[in-house]
């Protein structure tokens, strides 16, 4: 009987130490085995990359590493205080992405920076990203690493970048209320401005309204509200951007882009994620619906 009790206690401890605990209504997406995720790796991009398929020293085209290879252990999970923490080394461009397709949800997670950088971003801000409404194959973007999607940028607050910035990935498009900065070269989210069409030959980047990142080494809490083609980017409790009319251009025609997988980018910087939780929503919460009026 004593041995049975020990075995039972060990089993309970194992279960509680391999997945994030979640409040009622929330589903944890991270465990020590990455059982709800797959991986994709493209290339170790070099300085001078211009969007073309990389070649070897003889000029022969290189093929991407591909799905679920995890070369150089770029994606790994460590246990800290009994909870799983995802480390993305950034050494090779790519992503870890959910096996499941999600629509109408509230996603939240915590993220902090490591210390490592890799070519070609040794002199650039640390960078990663949450790509949502992700559809199709990986490798269709400029960096040949990610799916068609919308990006909630995860970046150091330097050189015009910030947590919560928006990027169109591949042929995605959306409307964002934004105005150009004083130098007229960059859009910044402004809830009082007129909507701007992102993508489709227009701007593909919009800055968040402000920088609310905590100091490096501390955990930032990021939230994404994504409902019926509308999304809210939240950084440490601050709404920094609202995306409307999410879509994609397919064969020259605009189509809605309102559901898909969730990708976390590997982009030449070491980054850690934990407490990745998601819950379904029936509608845009009232406190955020005002951003679309």
UniProtKB/TrEMBL annotation:
Keywords, in A-Z order: Signal
Top-rank taxon, per record: Bacteria
Limits of the 3-keto-alpha-glucoside-1,2-lyase/3-keto-2-hydroxy-glucal hydratase domain: 25-279
GO molecular function term, any single one: hydrolase activity
N-terminal signal peptide: 1-21
Name used for this protein in its record: DUF1080 domain-containing protein
Protein species of origin: Hymenobacter taeanensis
Lineage of origin: Bacteria, Pseudomonadati, Bacteroidota, Cytophagia, Cytophagales
